[in-house]
Design goal:
Blueprint lengths: L1 H13 L21 E4 L2 E4 L19 H12 L11 H4 L46 H6 L13 H9 L2 H11 L5 H12 L8 H6 L9 H11 L18 E2 L15 H4 L8 E2 L21 H9 L19 H12 L17
Antiparallel strand pairs: 1-2, 3-4
Helix pairs in contact: 1-9, 2-7, 9-12, 11-12
Length: about 350
């Protein structure tokens, strides 16, 4: 499907002057606006432009209404942290497209993480999580910050389970959903289930590129789309319906400092992965500043300038990184197109009450 979409966009760029819109043509793989997909008793509303989700939802953790509701409560509940001050939503703020607006994450006792907080938007479609892909699933990632000293600070997973089991409202909900008292496995499954419902699509760019809505984006953004697929080389990495190849690349970030982050190499131990980080989706990119794994760029204009220079030279720089020689107008057009990737479907009202 991703390949079909990429080819479609490349062809589309060549016929923009004809005023035609082009859809991804893989039958049944991209859902029209407002359609959903039933899975495990929960109807997941999938915005236009995204793939049908069923194959991405693990059979061992199907979505159910009760599980998603439990996961939402857990996601927003600061009692999951050691001192009741930090929830998942502290770093993944709905109003900021599920990021925190900080260069790097801030955890318990105002301790700083080492990397920028990534959005949870469209993580349904991703297996390996985090900038370096250490977590093989959303379930694994849901557990990851709980016992980290610089995140939520619980002394252990056992301590987390004991704390939540002392809350009768959570015990009752876990028994309803999983048939057990609180377990770390159930906690992870519930949070992951909720996160899989946070989707972004039906952007102006989708409606133009795949829906044929000629007036959905500006003339500048249309030129930006042509650049995105061509001269600017963006689709080398930001490809497919979710605008990411889900792979890891060295762009040179950190190689101009004395604190070089080895990235994917820390997981794979493959020399080819030194300094490589995962390609993020650029859906909602205009809402998720600052950018890069160290949060060094405050604006999309700075990001475009960085790529225009060809990244930062180092022995492991990706061969996809080359100087682009973009004009100022071309840079502005690229930014206009990326801003047209702001969509809908991800807005959620936080809970106002929690189990007691």
């Amino acid at each position: 499907m991703a390949q079909t979409c990429t080819v479609g966009r490349i062809i589309h760029a060549a016929i923009l002057s004809l005023g035609l819109g082009l859809a991804c043509l893989s039958p049944g793989s991209v859902l029209p606006a407002d359609q959903g997909s039933a899975k495990g008793g929960y109807v997941l509303k999938v915005p236009f432009g995204l793939e049908a989700p069923d194959e991405y939802i693990p059979k061992e953790n199907p979505l159910t209404q009760e599980k998603v509701e439990l996961g939402k409560l857990l996601f927003f509940d600061p009692r999951l942290s050691q001192n009741n001050t930090i929830s998942c939503a502290t770093c993944h703020i709905p109003q900021l497209a599920w990021t925190d607006g900080q260069p790097v994450g801030v955890g318990i006792h105002r301790q700083l993480a080492t990397r920028n907080t990534q959005t949870i938007l469209n993580r349904l479609y991703s297996k390996e999580q985090l900038w370096h892909g250490k977590m093989p699933s959303l379930e694994a990632q849901a557990q990851n910050p709980l016992a980290k000293p610089v995140r939520m600070g619980m002394p252990s997973y056992d301590a987390e389970v004991a704390k939540l089991n002392a809350i009768s409202g959570y015990r009752e909900r876990f028994r309803t959903v999983f048939g057990t008292d609180v377990t770390i496995e159930g906690l992870a499954k519930a949070i992951a289930a909720f996160e899989r419902t946070i989707l972004s699509g039906n952007s102006p760019a989708d409606r133009f590129d795949m829906g044929g809505e000629e007036t959905a984006i500006s003339e500048s953004a249309k030129r930006g789309l042509t650049l995105f697929q061509g001269k600017a080389r963006c689709t080398r990495c930001h490809s497919g319906f979710n605008f990411t190849d889900e792979k890891f690349h060295n762009l040179g970030i950190d190689w101009d400092t004395d604190k070089t982050d080895l990235g994917r190499y820390l997981v794979s131990k493959d020399p080819e992965d030194v300094g490589a980080f995962k390609t993020p989706t650029i859906r909602e990119i205009a809402r998720t500043a600052p950018y890069m794994h160290d949060g060094r760029f405050a604006t999309l204009e700075e990001v475009v300038d960085f790529y225009d220079r060809g990244g930062i030279q180092n022995p492991h720089l990706s061969n996809l990184m080359v100087p682009l020689h973009l004009t100022e107008r071309e840079k502005n057009d690229l930014v206009a197109y990326m801003k047209a990737l702001n969509g809908e479907g991800w807005q959620v009202e936080p809970p106002t009450e929690f189990p007691r």
